[in-house]
Amino acid sequence: MENAEKLITVTGRGNIHILPDVTRVEVTINSIFRSYDTAYQMAEANLKDIGEVMKKCGLSTQLPKTVQFAIDKHYHNVYDKGHYTGEQEFDGYNLTQVVRINLGMDNALLTKVVRGLGENLTDVEIEIGYTVQDPRPHQLKMLERAVKDATEKAKIMASAAGCTLGLVKSIDYSEHEIHIYSQARHIAEPCLAAGCSESSLDITPEDLVGGEDVTVTWYLSNANKDMK
Hints:
This protein has four helices and eight strands, in the order ββαββαβαββαβ. By secondary structure, it is of the alpha+beta class. The protein has one domain: Protein of unknown function (DUF541), domain 2 (Alpha-Beta Plaits). A hairpin with a 2-residue loop joins strand 3 and strand 4 (83-103). Helix 1 runs antiparallel to helix 2. The longest helix has 25 residues, at 136-160. The relative contact order is 0.26.
């Protein structure tokens, strides 16, 4: 249509490489107990033990943060002569606890914390990863690069079509929490954590990679005349 708006919509991608400044230790505890009360008491004991590890490492007991906590009924499948009967039997309460501890980039301190967790906790798995203390400045840089990327692409496509970019009509971006994180090591058993040394945890983290998408729509005008 002659009077229809001439538009171009392009999605830009803004990627950056980020040097991590936080070592994240995530502790996951899964245990089954015969009663709910016993499971709850063990959860409290686990937090107390983690607090004691923090004290021994010269850290605040407020540093560990519980990010998941659940006590659910646990069932097992019933089999008859090797065949599943379709029935389940209750066998206790499953405690799931996930506690996150953010440390600096200090391998000696990391080793003390991991060893202490392995020596004081049972049924524990430990994940070591890297992130950043404040992701906000990095997110803003990604958004800036995403808009520039969209603009560069739009200029090339408009020129190839014999047009020029006009004013921006809209910018579409969905606000969300970004997760800049990279897993480096998974320790599956407390005995392995207790036996860690500085050399075994001497991890050189790679740069973290983050990216954001922004969609921009421009008015188009023919190259040989001004947009009306």
